[in-house]
């Protein structure tokens, strides 16, 4: 269930995007699930079609959904590939940490700092 809080300082498209992303990541919306049409979801939530369209575009850019023309938008298997990539990166990171002798608490602080500062969002060069 999607709930848009009109009193929130967070824009409606971002509320929608975040809630759908969370449902995809926690598998409430399984791979292959067909999402409502833009018009249908906009009407159900009392939003403009362009607002829902923006949320869908951002989810598609993140690889969480895919649009198949007139067939509609579906939860993508690419989201699972991203999760597996993150698992592999975490295993590699753990091996590096063990190799250089950094303790677990420090390793977690390093990751938290990277996530907070946005460096985790930057692709490796």
Features:
about 5% strand, mainly alpha, about 120 residues, single chain, about 60% helix, two-stranded antiparallel ribbon
Mean pLDDT figure: 89
**Number of DSSP-assigned strands:** 2
User: What is the first-to-last residue Cα distance?
Assistant: 39 Å
Structural class, from helix and strand content? mainly alpha
Task: Please write out the topology.
Layout: H1 12-25, H2 38-45, H3 49-61, E1 65-67, E2 73-75, H4 78-100, H5 104-117
Antiparallel strand pairs: 1-2
Helix pairs in contact: 1-3, 2-3
If you had to describe this structure to a student in words, what would you say it looks like?
With 125 residues, the chain is mainly alpha-helical. It is 58% helix and 5% strand. The chain is built from 5 helices and 2 strands, in the order αααββαα. Strands 1-2 form a two-stranded antiparallel ribbon. Strand 1 (65-67) and strand 2 (73-75) form a beta hairpin. Helix 1 (12-25) packs across helix 3 (49-61) and helix 2 (38-45) packs across helix 3 (49-61). 16% of the residues are buried. Mean pLDDT is 89; it is low at 120-125.
Brief digest:
The protein has helices spanning 12-25, 38-45, 49-61, 78-100, 104-117; strands spanning 65-67, 73-75.
């Amino acid at each position: 269930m999607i709930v848009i809080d009109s009193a929130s300082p967070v824009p409606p498209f971002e509320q929608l995007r975040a809630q759908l992303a969370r449902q995809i990541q926690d598998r409430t919306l399984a791979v292959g699930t067909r999402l409502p049409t833009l018009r249908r979801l906009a009407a159900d939530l009392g939003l403009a079609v362009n607002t829902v369209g923006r949320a869908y575009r951002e989810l598609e850019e993140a690889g969480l959904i895919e649009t198949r023309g007139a067939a509609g938008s579906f939860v993508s298997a690419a989201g699972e590939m991203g999760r597996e990539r993150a698992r592999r990166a975490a295993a590699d990171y753990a091996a590096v940490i063990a190799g250089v002798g950094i303790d677990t608490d420090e390793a977690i602080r390093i990751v938290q700092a990277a996530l907070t500062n946005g460096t985790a969002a930057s692709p490796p060069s």
